Each structure stands twice: as C-alpha cells, then as structure tokens.
Amino acid sequence: FEQKGEPFVYRCINRLDRDTTGLIVLAKHALSAAVLSQAMRSREIHRTYQAFALGETAASGTIDAPIARLDGSLIQRTVDFASGERSVTHYRTLAHCSVFSHLELNLETGRTHQIRVHMAYIGHPLLGDALYGGDTALLTRPALHSAAADFTQPVTGQSLHITAPVPDDLRAFDFERYL
C-alpha cells in the first residue's frame, strides 16, 4: 500500500471469515499494531455484526457454548462441551418475518466461525451458509457483515466508531424499512 506516495506495510488486527463482508482493523505502524493487538486480546475493541438467520429468532439472547474443530475437518467447527473453547455470542433481533430474521450480534469471545456455529447450534443457521446448514437458495455466501467497530485510536487516544454499510446482496432483503 501507499500513503501520500510512500509505501507502508499494514498489519491486520482482526480477520473475517471467508465471504464475510465489512470492516477490519488495520495498523500502519508496528507500535500501533502492538497497541491494537493488545486491545483486541483484552476485548477493548468492540465489533458489531449484522446477519440474516433462518426462521424467527427470539428478541435477544446469549449463546454460551464452547466451540472446537469438527473431528476430521480442517475447516468446520462445532459446539463441543467436552473439548471446545469457551465461546459467547450476544444477539438482538432487529426485525423478522416468518422465513428469516435480521440480527445484530456482538462477540464476547472470538472463535473461528463463532457466529455461524452458534446460530446453527440454536437452530437458526445463517442464510447462504452451506457449511452450517443455511439455505443457499437466496444467497450463495453466509449472510454475515462486520458492521461496526468501536475502539481507541492508539496514537491520539480518540474514541472511534467506524461503520461499514451493509452490502447490496444483503440490502436486497429490505429490512431497513423495519428499523
């Protein structure tokens, strides 16, 4: 990357599952990366996701179920109370119809595929999520979007709230009229 004609190396502070849209946090300098990485580990960076799940979900809820790699798979995860790592997802239903629900989600932990695994576990897989049982008739990728991040800018100390607009393929579900 270049900024004002000078190349720089960026450092990725968080990552997203493949085909998840939205924002990620990047650092331009090693010091900023170290501060932001520590903030991520101490849960001082708060990320908000939006998703579309099959069926009508409860108004809100917390899913506290440990996640582990599915035996025999390099990719797929599962809820596993015997050997999984603690995983907690909080959700709020923004709107719903009989077919699917529009959710806002916040992670207390950050496991691979956490939202996708937890929503499938409670019987509401994400639309388009073939790996975890989601219907792919309406969408060919998991209906998951990293919508916002709140954190402190590591150099200035300024509180930041950054948002990423919902992409067109998710806007097609037209839930904004209910918000």
Walk me through this protein's architecture:
The protein has 179 residues and is mainly beta. The protein is 13% helix and 34% strand. It has three helices and 13 strands. It has helices at 30-41, 114-121, 168-171; strands at 2-3, 6-7, 11-12, 21-22, 26-27, 46-54, 60-64, 67-69, 77-79, 88-96, 100-107, 144-152, 159-163. Strands 4, 6, 7, 10, 11, 12 and 13 form a seven-stranded mixed β-sheet that branches. Strands 1-2 form a two-stranded antiparallel ribbon. A hairpin with a 3-residue loop joins strand 10 (88-96) and strand 11 (100-107). The model has no long low-confidence stretch (mean pLDDT 92).
Summarize the model shown.
The protein has helices at about 30-40, 115-120, 170; strands at about 1-5, 5, 10, 20, 25, 45-55, 60-65, 65-70, 75-80, 90-95, 100-105, 145-150, 160-165. By secondary structure, the protein is mainly β. Strands 4, 6, 7, 10, 11, 12 and 13 form a seven-stranded mixed beta sheet that branches. A two-stranded antiparallel sheet has the order 1-2.
